[in-house]
Amino acid sequence: MRVMVMVKATTKSEAGIVPGDPGFAKSLEEMGKFNEELIKAGVLLAADGLHPSSRGKRVRFGRSGVKRTVVDGPFTETKELVAGFWLWQVKSIEEAVEWVRRCPHPMPGEESEIEIRPIIEAEELGKDFARAKAKRLRAVQRRKRS
After folding, report:
1. Which positions ≥6 away from 104 have C-beta within 8 Å?
2. Which of these, 109, 106, 111, lies nearest to 47 by C-alpha position?
3. Mind giving me the DSSP string for the chain?
4. Are the C-beta atoms of residues 56 and 75 closer than 8 Å to each other?
5. Are the C-beta atoms of residues 141 and 133 closer than 8 Å to each other?
6. 2 contacts 93 by C-beta, under 8 angstroms
7. Which positions ≥6 away from 90 have C-beta within 8 Å?
8. Residue 128 belongs to some domain of the structure
9. Phi, psi at 60, each rounded to 5°
10. Are 81 and 75 in contact (CB under 8 A)?
């Protein structure tokens, strides 16, 4: 199963973490080692940190879906924001929890939280959907080769 593992934002992460900040190099090194463990175990599919919400935008859809409003960051509910993520391939959600328990503290000096959510696989939406997705992926791969 694939899971998205989200590191929730904090006040400090929303302020913008930059090289030279106290503890930055150590945190980066510890997270790098953890990511290497994930790679060696065949778990890590993707990973990245995100800029603060002050550099982001949201698009709000009206009920009908016709009206769309662009909202500039920053966004005020820090605990609802994501500072970074991983995509993992694991055997179970319990395995993902065990990996997170081994993770270095993502936001040293602050309380922080990591959320794990299973990804909906195409097969869960039915055979027709899965076949159509596979067909689209093959078409994309053919275009990349040409």
Report:
1. 27, 30, 31, 33, 34
2. 106
3. -EEEEEEEP-HHHHH---TTSTTHHHHHHHHHHHHHHHHHTT-EEEEEE---GGG-EEEEEPTTS--EEEEESP-S-GGGSEEEEEEEE-S-HHHHHHHHHHSPPSSTTS---EEEEEPPPGGGG-HHHHHHHHHHHHHHHHHHH-
4. yes
5. no
6. no
7. 1, 2, 3, 43, 96, 99
8. no
9. -95, 130
10. yes
Domain count, the chain: 1
At 11, phi and psi to the nearest 5? -55, -45
Integer Cα distance of 49 and 64 in angstroms: 33
Does some domain include residue 102?
Answer: yes
At 11-66, the pLDDT tens digits run 888 988 766 777 788 888 999 999 999 999 999 999 999 999 999 999 999 999 99
**Residue 74 belongs to domain spanning:** 2-121
pTM of the model: 0.83
